[in-house]
Amino acid sequence: MSNFGLYEDRVKNFSWSIAEEELEYRQGNVLNIGWYCSDRICLKGKAEKTALIYEGFGGIRKVYSFNDIRLAGNTIGNFLRSIGIVNEDRVCLFMDRIPELYLSFLGVLKIGAIVQPLFSAFGEESLFVRLENAQTRAIITQSKHLSKVRKIIDKLPHLEFIIVADHNKSKKLENREMAFSLQESEPVEHLEIYPTKAETPSVLHYTSGTTGLPKGVKHVHYSLIAQYLTSKWVLDLQDDDIYWCTADPGWVTGTSYGIIGPWSLGITQCVLDSGFSAQAWYKFIQDNKITMWYSAPTAIRSLMRAGDEIVKEFNLSSLRHLASVGEPLNSEAVIWSMKVFGKPFHDTFWQTETGCIMITNFPGMRVKPGSMGRPFPGITGVVLDPKKYEPITETGKIGLIAFRPGWPSMMRGYWNNEEKYKNKFINGWYLSGDRSTIDNEGYFWFIGRDDDVINTGGHLVSPFEVESALLEHPAVAESAVVAKPDEINMEVVKAFITLKPGFTPGPDLELEIMNFVRKKLSSIAMPQAVEFMEKIPKTRSGKIMRRLLHAKEWGEEIGDISTLEND
Ligand code: PRX
Predict the structure, then answer these.
(1) What is the pLDDT of residues 106-123, one digit of tens each?
(2) How far is the CA of 411 from the centre of ligand 1 (A)?
(3) 71 CB contacts (<8 Å, ≥6 apart)?
(4) Cα-to-centroid distance, 261 and ligand 1 (Å)
(5) The pTM is what?
(6) Cβ of 434 below 6 Å from ligand 1
(7) CATH number of the domain that residue 11 is part of
(8) What confidence score (pLDDT) does residue 59 get?
(9) 337, CA 20 to 30 Å: which among 141, 215, 434, 475?
(10) Quick one: which of 333, 260, 270 has its CA closest to 296?
(11) Which domain holds residue 321?
C-alpha cells in the first residue's frame, strides 16, 4: 500500500452526498441534529445501546442508553417549550461536564432553539459579554455557578430564564430563576421535533480574536453531514468502539466531536469530569476499555511529564486509535505515544469556524511526526502568499492556511458582525489566520498564528480581552498582553503593566492582579506572569507594539521598529 492508504481513494471518489445517503437525508427535508443523535439511533435498533458513560468527582458514575438520552432530550425540550422558548432563541448551557449538559444540548436543538455552550470556568465578565452579544433568552446552569449569573443579571434584560439543573430546595431562588430537575420530571415519550432545515442555526460558539469582543460563530444543522463523516473517517469510529473525547463542550471540539459526531454514528462515549491527573486518565481508559481517544497536545505533554513507568501500571491494550487537536502537536509527543501506547496520536487541524476537521493524518496514511497531515477528502486546502493571496505552489514556503468555502460545517457568520465575517474571505478563499508550509507530499507543517491571539493549552485567548480586564483594576494604568513560551501549555498569558501613581510593584500586587483577571475572565485567561514596566512600547499612533514584547519573550528578532514612539 502507498503512504496514503485509503486516503487517496477517498479523495478521488469524494462527495458529501456519501454522508447524506448514509444518514438518509434528502436535500430540502427536515434535518435536526438532536433527532439524529438520539431518536434516529433508537429507530435503527440501538435504543438499549449505551450512549453515555459519565464519571464525576467522588467516583459518581452514571450510564445512559440511547433511549435514555432520547427521552431526556425530549423532557428538557418539552420543559423549555413550556416556559415559552421558541425556535432560534438562544439558550446558553453553563455547566460543568455533567450529563445534563449533554442532554440539554439535544433538548435545545430538538425544539429548534440555538445552543450557546459556555465554559463553566468563565468568570462573570466573560459570561456577560457573550450573553449580551447573543441576546440570550435562557441559561441552564448549576447552583455552584449561580452567583456569577446573579452578578450580571441586572445588565441582561433579555435573559428571562435562569434554569438551575441541580437546585437544592432549601435555598431560595431569586427573580427569573427556576429549578428544573431531570430526575424528578416525568419522561416525555413524544416530543414534536421542530422542523429545522439544513440552514437553520444550531450552535453558537464564541471564539476570541486579536481585537474586539469575542465573536459568536454561527453553525447550522447541516454541519452534521461533515461532523458525521469526519468522525467516521478520521476518528475512525466503529460500531463497537468506546470513545473518549477529552474536550469540554464549552469549546467546539466538545460539541462537534464530543456530542454530534459520535452520537449521530450511534457510538458509546465516555465523559470524565473530575480534573486532570495521569493516574485518573489511565484508570479511566482501563476501566472503560476505551478504544478511541481524542485529546489535545497539552494533555499529552502533561502525560509525558508524568513519565513512562506509570503507563505500565495500567492495562491500556483496548486503545486502537488516537487523535489530537487544538495546538501544535510536537513530534516528540507523537514519538512518545508510539513508544508507550504502541500507536501515534494522529494530529487534526481545524477551528471553531470550520466546525469539522480540515487537515489530518488520515488513518492508514503514514504519520510524519510534527506534521498535521493532509486536507480531509473534499476539502481544498492551500497556503496563500501573504501579499498576493494566491496559492503558493513551491513546497516548503510559508503561507497562510486557506480553504475553499463550501463544506457543510463551515460557519454561516459571526453573530451580528457581518464585517468581521467578510474580512475572513479573500479571492474566494476562507482565511484561517494560521501559517504553514506544505511539503512535497502535500503534508501541512504548522508554523504559527498570523495574529496576536494566544493559544494556551489549546484555548484561544484574546490579548485585547485580558488588557481590557486589567485596565479595570484600580492599580493598572496601561497594559499589554502577549504569549510567553511554556513547556506544557506551549503558550501562557503574560501581562506587561504600568501602574498608576501611588501603587508600588511587588509580588502581592502581582498576585492580586492575576486573581482579578481569573475571577473576571477565567483561569485560562489569567496571566501566568506579570512584568511591571515604566512604559509600554507603542507606535506613534498610540497602538501597543505587542510584536516587540512578543519577540522579547520568545528571543526572536525584533524586526522593524521604525514606527515605535520615542520619548
Ligand atoms: O491556531 C490554530 C489552532 O487552534 C486554532 C483554532 O482554535 P479554536 O477555534 O479554539 O478551535 C480549536 C479546536 C478545533 C487554529 O486556528 N490549532 C487547532 N488545531 C491545531 C492548531 N494548531 C496547530 N495544530 C493543530 N492541529
Answers:
(1) 999 999 999 999 999 999
(2) 15
(3) 187, 188, 189
(4) 18
(5) 0.95
(6) yes
(7) 3.40.50.12780
(8) 87
(9) 434
(10) 333
(11) 3-438
